[in-house]
């Protein structure tokens, strides 16, 4: 396996774990407080449906949505990066840095920590732009 493929595969698995953890985080808060907005979930717990989600669940949902705006782009660019043979050495930096930035973004989002949430977001976006330029350079 070439270096870019290795880092892409590792980043993909770690990003899956991160997104799964956000789902688990929401579940822990819902179950822990027996607060469910969905009527059938509330009924299963012997509760009435809540009018709104818990604040922790709302915040995690927003972090999840931000992931859905960024991670699929990374996954697509990563495949293109490997297919065109863009710099494997740079992939060894870009793929892990993007992954760490997404982890930090989520932690900062859940904790309501600014400006570090924005910094983490911008680091991830910078990685996407560098990947894009590397793909274009490899095509030229």
TrEMBL record:
EC top class, as a word: transferase
Official protein name in the record: Microsomal glutathione S-transferase 1
Main location: endoplasmic reticulum
Molecular-function GO terms, alphabetical: glutathione transferase activity
Function: Conjugation of reduced glutathione to a wide number of exogenous and endogenous hydrophobic electrophiles.
The protein's assembly and partners: Homotrimer; The trimer binds only one molecule of glutathione.
EC number in record: 2.5.1.18
Catalytic activity of the protein: RX + glutathione = an S-substituted glutathione + a halide anion + H(+)
Entry keyword Transmembrane helix: yes
Compartments where found: Endoplasmic reticulum membrane
Annotated TM spans: 6-28, 73-98, 118-139
Membrane as UniProt keyword: yes
């Amino acid at each position: 396996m070439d270096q870019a493929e290795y880092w892409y595969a590792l980043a993909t698995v770690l990003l899956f774990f991160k997104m799964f953890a956000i789902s688990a985080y929401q579940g822990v808060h819902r179950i822990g407080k027996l607060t469910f907005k969905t009527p059938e979930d509330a009924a299963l717990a012997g509760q009435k449906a809540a009018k709104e989600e818990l604040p922790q669940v709302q915040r995690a949902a927003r972090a999840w949505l931000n992931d859905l705006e960024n991670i699929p782009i990374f996954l697509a660019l990563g495949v293109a990066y490997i297919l065109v043979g863009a710099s494997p050495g740079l992939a060894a930096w870009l793929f892990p840095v993007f992954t760490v930035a997404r982890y930090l973004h989520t932690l900062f989002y859940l904790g309501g920590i600014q400006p570090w949430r924005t910094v983490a977001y911008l680091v991830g976006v910078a990685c996407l732009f560098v990947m894009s330029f590397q793909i274009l350079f490899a095509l030229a």
